[in-house]
Amino acid sequence: MTTPLDGIIVLDLTHVLAGPFCSTILGDLGARVIKIERPVLGDDTREFPPFKQGESAYFAALNAGKQSIALDLKAPADRAIFERLLDRADVVLENYRPGVMERLGYGFEDLRKTHPRLIYGAVSGFGHTGPEAGKPAYDMVVQARGGVMSITGPEGGPPVRVGASVGDIVAGMYLAQGILAALVQRGRTGEGAKVDIAMLDSQLAIQEHSLATTTATGVPPGPTGARHPSITPFSTYRASDGFFVIAAGNDALFAKLAQGLGCPDWVTDPRFASNGARCENVHMLKRLIEAITLEKPRDHWIALMESAGVPTARVQNMAEAIEDPQVKARNMVVPVEQREGGPSFKAAGNPIKMSTLPDRQARGPAPLLDADREAILGWLDAAG
Amino acid sequence: MTTPLDGIIVLDLTHVLAGPFCSTILGDLGARVIKIERPVLGDDTREFPPFKQGESAYFAALNAGKQSIALDLKAPADRAIFERLLDRADVVLENYRPGVMERLGYGFEDLRKTHPRLIYGAVSGFGHTGPEAGKPAYDMVVQARGGVMSITGPEGGPPVRVGASVGDIVAGMYLAQGILAALVQRGRTGEGAKVDIAMLDSQLAIQEHSLATTTATGVPPGPTGARHPSITPFSTYRASDGFFVIAAGNDALFAKLAQGLGCPDWVTDPRFASNGARCENVHMLKRLIEAITLEKPRDHWIALMESAGVPTARVQNMAEAIEDPQVKARNMVVPVEQREGGPSFKAAGNPIKMSTLPDRQARGPAPLLDADREAILGWLDAAG
């Protein structure tokens, strides 16, 4: 089967998270990703804990299946190699501060003259335009400025960050979308494009309800802990051994819940008779529910909710999520192929399941720094 | 300028969030999105608060610029219209439970026979395969099962949900990537594809550090509030009027921070002399920093950090984020065009900035239910 991006060559100059997250997506879709790292140190994440046999599990998960060559883009011999790679490439990705690629002579305006079909993807903290275009950013900086921290955390409590690095990851996903759109477009016009993704922009784009609410009412929402701001009961609840979710989104589901918990009279109790009343008495209702659910473990309540037809879920830690039967059935945690004598790692599977793309049962090995230099040079020579 | 998806027709049968989020992305890239809604009620989010002149701001933000036609896919006359639309479509999106489209006669295997170029995109809670394929899910159900709640929240406290609905949104983004990849592939092979996205899968895919850490060490990480788990100081801090971020990722930045706060001796204090020592004394250091920063407002400290060269940010609520000069310069909050006499709304701008895609200064109007029926039927007739 020919994969969607079969034969597409991606030169990936990015490091850490947003850019490598994007090139993983392109690789999952069939592209060949050549990671171009700085000599000696390589990608910063090679030093991110935890380690196995001196190799970073974090690096391995984000770079499995990619090739690595170390190039100093200021050194003439390495620049010559990079330029031969550019002649073969469909996509180049970079996450330098704006201006750095221009100073190297590889800015988009330079490259479009010599490589009009090349697609140039940039991801940066604040983008390549605007008053703060040049400033550095980190995941937490854009989580803070973009508003997601202000709606995440306990009600009335201090802001917390989203535990997954959505400041980087969402930007990497938008970059992948821009690159794919540019490939569609190039298929029609023959011309490349520049894609300019800002981490801060990407945070605004995921504020589905808070942006609409704030612009319509003038009042920005705050955090609501684990509960839905306008549906009750729709939150986490304590069992004897941990938390689980009850998502009773309407009166019929609330009736099933009340019946299941042995409290059918809740349905006619004026404090709980409508969603509006339940929202007004949300803390009271939570205590009444937990007075029951604290008596037994989560699995008991999950089974009871499922038989009652009330949407539910365990709040799983990552060890539990990895062992979740549905996660396993969907091939969402896969081994990273081991190099001979090297450590074994695991990584997330490909979430894009397509009828025209085999769902791989493992990811290729994570490359040691510069491990593919000879193979890449040989390929360039063979291609002439 | 011809946009990347110029001329692409998307039939969008989805409602609420994940699917409409995907079709917004495709629309931003130039596709024409025809929203096919159930008669009378339409998309559930038409009833989501807040409202202006009886119209939902939430619906408007997610559906601006789309067309609407109401069709009952069980009624012969409406099925005939849907089938005429299928003849013109490039993409169909649905978020029914697995099996519903098959019972309507519009499953992927049916459609591929009659429309081999059609790209079929499905998004569901758990996907179209696996033991729980048929179960319903909500954003919070997959946030809980997929692990993101277990790493989000105050240290040692109860789990909280991510304030933005990443359970839906990330799935919608992966669906957009799959559709775009299928368009690239169809450009080469002439054949369509099915894309099957699960909200739960998508949550696993964004667990960049916790999945790697858990599989490498066996120990799942817990929540760490607003601080980075292994870099100090890298967290939120209290000023007199709110929270701000200090992201001092290495010794040099810590020295600049200490100097800026008037405490140069911190650098040689054995409690804080290295990142490891600072991590061990993270709570002590936080109190020392806040003993200073609580005295003055955020803007004072942001200016001081910036002049010292320490990455920083305000923790902004959505009202502040919308007014952020960089957000404005990047066109990331745009008006939704007003229908005559209709309410005015705003929505997020397009975060995919491309040299080959004009950055629109406004989104098209949000459609009333079935508002485009006549225009769509006229277009079908004109096309023959």
UniProtKB/TrEMBL annotation, chains A, B:
Pfam families: CoA_transf_3. The keyword Transferase applies. It comes from Neotabrizicola shimadae. Keywords: Transferase. The lineage of its organism: Bacteria, Pseudomonadati, Pseudomonadota, Alphaproteobacteria, Rhodobacterales. GO terms for molecular function: CoA-transferase activity. This is CoA transferase. InterPro entries: CoA-transferase_III_domain, CoA-Trfase_fam_III, CoA-Trfase_III_dom3_sf, CoA-Trfase_III_dom_1_sf. Residues 340-365 are annotated as: Disordered.
